[in-house]
Amino acid sequence: EPTWYEGLLRRKAVNLRKVLGKRTPSCGSSALPPNRLALPEVRPKSGLQQSVSEPAFAPKKAWRCVWSGKVGIRAAPSMDGERTGDIIQGGDVFEVVSERRAPDGVLFLELADGRGWVFESKAEVGTVCVRHEAPLQAPQKPVRQPGPELYERLNVHAGLESRLTVSKIQRKLNKEHWQKEETDFLGAQGAAGFRAFLVGRFGTISAGWRALDREGRGHICFSEFCNVCRKLGFHGNMRTLWKELDAKCHGSISLVELDPEAARCVDTFKHELVQKYGSMATAWKEGLDRGGRGSVEEKDVTACCQRLGLDLNGKKLYKLLKNSPPKSTLGLSLKDFDEQAAIRLATGGASAGVPTKDREPASDEMTKQQEVPTEGDG
Fold first, then answer.
1. Share of residues in the chain with pLDDT > 90 (%)
2. Looking at the structure, do residues 246 and 290 belong to the same domain, yes or no?
3. Which helix (H) or strand (E) covers residue 64, if one does?
4. Final residue of a domain: which of 230, 258, 286?
5. What b/e readout covers 24-49, taking b as 16+ CB neighbours within 10 angstroms?
6. Residue 217, domain CATH
7. Which of 258, 287, 313 lies at the terminal end of a domain, its last residue?
8. How many angstroms separate the CA atoms of 206 and 288, rounded?
9. What angle, 0 to 180 degrees and rounded to 10, lies between the N-to-C axes of helices 205-212 and 222-232?
10. Got the DSSP string for 331-355?
11. Cβ–Cβ < 8 Å for 125, 82
């Protein structure tokens, strides 16, 4: 019985013979007679070696053994075929070059490695092999482990010394970079770093203190300190910084803990103004802003200190009182000088010109003054 491939060749030969027989003669030549095109001689394979489903050049297909036991490989596609001694086990994936169905209906698979045939299923045991959809992976080459010879060649390589030198330079530069980062990080420098942050952000520590003491009470607690520092962009160990600032454990800090000299200078100046003019609003109108411009300059503060008979540096005092950036051309306003007095003066309150309660002048022991300041205090 011819195979399907042999039948295909026969049909193609018949169709080609019909086409050549219908050609018309041209240039004195005539079409080839039908008997000139003979069918190719087909010699079927003898015995059981004939494949009934696949040509010799058919692509290989993958199959997988799904039976839990062992399947013996046979030398011929028959259940009675001789065993070759090789086996396949459950989970094995193998390639098949041809398939043949035996007279009893069992499909046999020819292994691509030439070991023999295995059957696809059997009535007594059920399905033994199924088609494997996943493509077969090419076997991976074993990874060669470096031996002592490789390390010996690397140690005597011409570029080894230069690579080691470059590596040392890179490690040194990285170390210097991180050291500089740690040095420039003000949050790791304690109270000194915090004071440097205030000076860099606001120009003076006193101006930075006014940003911390937003309610103008003269002191802040730990929670207020942490919240304002986060809003200002200062990062660091807040608890350690607080313990360093509040060394005497008062529970709150003031300008005295940040800059004692600035606190003494500002407090002395405001105390003398209240003593002479009675209130901060009156002192602003009669002692500082005599022209009613709404702001005062450095010369006005210096002249006021001379009238009060204070031995204070007017230029330094002006910078301490000013709340705008150092390079700003804006002068000192009443809001910078005393925010509460500016509010009373703007609203026209009855207490705008009422003298405030007298206070004792500032002393060197400013750390003892932790009480809440009066309305006239800065």
1. 2
2. no
3. strand 61-65
4. 258
5. eeeeeeeeeeeeeeeeeeeeeeeeee
6. 1.10.238.10
7. 258
8. 20
9. 110
10. -EEHHHH-HHHHHHHHHT-GGGSSP
11. no
* Contact assessment for residue 22 and residue 34, using Cβ atoms and an 8 Å cutoff: no
Under 8 Å between Cβ of 340 and 375: yes
> Which pairing describes strands 129-131 and 61-65: parallel, antiparallel, or unpaired?
antiparallel
Cα dist. 358→172, 306, 334, 373, 377 in Å?
Answer: 62, 21, 20, 11, 10
Taking only the tens place, the pLDDT of each residue in 252-269 is 888 888 888 888 888 888
Q: φ and ψ at 40, to 5 degrees?
A: -65, 145
109 sits in which H/E element: strand 107-111
Q: Which residue has the tokens 């004792």?
A: 360
Beta bridge partners of residue 146, listed in sequence order: none
The residue segments making up the domain with residue 114 are 61-131
CA distance 212 to 227: 9
DSSP 375: T
| pTM for the structure as a whole | 0.40
Structure tokens of 182? 């740690």
**DSSP collapsed to 3 states, 5-39:** HHHHHHHHHHHHHHHHHCCCCECCECCCCHHHCCC
Residue 339 CA to chain centroid, in angstroms?
Answer: 45
Number of structural domains in the chain: 3
